[in-house]
Amino acid sequence: MIFDPRGWCALVLSLFAATASAAEGMWTLDNLPLAQLKAKYGFEPDAKWVDHVMKASVRLADGCSGSFVSKDGLVLTNAHCVLSCVQDLSGKKDWVNDGFVARKREEEVACPTMELNRLEQITDVTDQIRAATAGKQGEDYVDAKQAAQAKLESDCTGKDAAHTRCDVVELYDGGKFDLYRYHRFQDVRLVFWPEYRAAFFGGDPDNFSFPRYNLDMGMLRAYENGKPAKVKDFFPLNPAGAKPGELTMVTGHPGSTDRQLTMAQLEGLRDYRLIDMALYMAERRAMLAQYSRIGAEAARQAQTDLTFTANSLKVYRGQLEALHDPAVFARKQQDEQALRAAAASDAPWEAVAQAERVRRNHYIRYMMLERRQAFYSDEFRIARELVRHADEMAKPNASRLPEYQDSALPRIEQRVMSKAPIYPEYEKAKLTWSLTKLREAVGPDDPLVMLVLGKESPAQLAAELVDHSELADLSVRKKLWNGGAAAIAASKDPFIELARAVDAPSRAVRKTMEADVDGPEERAAEEIAKVRFDKYGTSVYPDATFTLRLSYGEVKGWDEDGHEVAPYTQMEGAFARQTGSDPFLLPKSWNAAKDKLDLSTPFDFVTTNDIIGGNSGSPVINRDAQIVGLAFDGNQHSFGGAYWFDERLNRCVAVHPAAIAEALSKIYDAGALLKEMEGR
């Protein structure tokens, strides 16, 4: 499952020369590797093809990818990308475990916080950002850059923030800035979700592995003005799939890679940041697992969080192991020295090293406060968003925190006004644990702990907060949102009072990180990027930025310690892999339909496409822009893919379209949806 909490770093520069012969790279659509595609596959996409692919691809704002698969706004993505929606909609009806199929349009159900973005235009705004930040350093640089971005995004969005989203995107570590304009869909409805056991068959033991037997697919529909959105560009499903050696392309939104980090940044990741995150997720997984043992309802409440926490832990551990490979650091050091030799001065690298020393001094407090590790609670998140919204709206748009600028407000409001249920006992369990982590991290005598806990225990405070708060009531949240600063100041809600109390120290540590870490590193990265640009130009791809990219490859297995791993699995393998207990247990619907299924149907497969977290739900398409697969994971070697790409071993794992067709028609009685995807 590649719903990765973030990507990481260190593409070995000496591998750049091999780009033309390897299926490497997450390429922006305005700079595709046309020469490589033509040389290796005889494929020459024209501007019309690129525009079609751009507008048929979809971004899920919470961190996934997808694509339109019909003219009526039907969207195909991964099951794990819509799991949060299904969890929010479940209650008396346990759709997470029982599945959901809307066989009629009127049965489609609105997802409380889902937003889809379709890229419409890319504009180079490098000159505008450069002019705004010229001669500035540290906090002045950060403020000038954010103000320039806010103006560009506001001018782009205009008065249509409900339907338009604009983001300034930093590429090549500051070597280039682009303005991405999206069409925004905020009325998104659930259409199909297989049972949890079908989507996550094999569970955490099989995660990031192959062979796999997952129907990790979900379907949504975009609506506008209360009706299914009409779209001209979409990818029809081709159940035949792709043959070995056939060109496959993945269009999606890889979240974040840092393949051009300096040695100082890599050392920080290796020596404490990844360790901290892995330990945090390990303990969170244990807490969620313990809560789940209370009973069936508690297990249902925690199911989604536990799934993604286990996935995140596996990612952090895998990336930490990759960074402890001495060969990686030796090669990275050599390449950094080569790049420094081409520069006029070592100053940019030294500036990054100094910033990394500052980061380490403030990292824990920043994570606890600004990243809310100390406040693992839906109600606290809502309270913070309400408090900061009231404060930030009193400022000019360009002076606000980026997440509260005009272009971002619809997304914040959608989250605050979510109809998703809040479970009091679950909130208490999460808060008790995270408040305990705060006390453990900074010490019981720290002023921050005294401010938050006073003389109460984490469990006592958590109970008081949850028992006396009214933020679970949507009408209360609406009054506070619409009432602005006056309503927030007058509120006696304990979560609002807590959010107000910790806002000043949280903003202070954020300001320090921006002024003394982010600002110097971003300014230094620009200088390093110029050196890299002089040497390589745009013949290489930029790091992933959760923006639309295309990677190319082909269906291909790999050699694992002398054992050839075949590129396909078949449906019969899923039944053979059953043990009779979770996570190796198929849903009742699958076992009931077994005799009707063609068990030789291809189920999952692997390709050499270069992907990372955020590519979950990406369509795998052929040169005719037909869907021949649905990306949902990587193999175990994909952890190294966060740092560089090794075509020998790194694989994208995808659902075969034949399995999608077989399941929809013979298991879920959803033939109408299959026909819609096939254009029939």
What is this entry, summarized?
This protein is α+β, with helices and mostly antiparallel strands. Helix 6 (138-157) crosses helix 19 (494-536), helix 9 (263-292) runs parallel beside helix 12 (347-369) and helix 22 packs antiparallel against helix 23.
Notes on the protein architecture:
By secondary structure, the chain is α+β, with helices and mostly antiparallel strands. The strands form 4 sheets. Strands 3, 4, 5, 6, 7, 8, 9, 10, 11, 12 and 13 form an 11-stranded antiparallel beta sheet that branches. The longest helix has 43 residues. The chain starts with 8 loop residues before the first strand and ends with a helix. Catalyzes the removal of dipeptides from the N-terminus of oligopeptides. It comes from Solimonas marina. GO terms for molecular function: dipeptidyl-peptidase activity; serine-type aminopeptidase activity. This is Dipeptidyl-peptidase.
Helix content: 40-55%
What is the molecular shape? globular
Strands, count = 23
- Uncertain spans: 3-21
Number of helices: 23
Taking the sheet with the most strands, its summary is: 11 strands, antiparallel
Q: Assign the structural class, choosing from mainly alpha, mainly beta, alpha/beta, alpha+beta, or little secondary structure.
A: alpha+beta
Mean pLDDT: 93
Distance between the terminal alpha carbons, to the nearest Å? 31 Å
What portion of the residues fall into strands of 2 or more residues?
15-25%
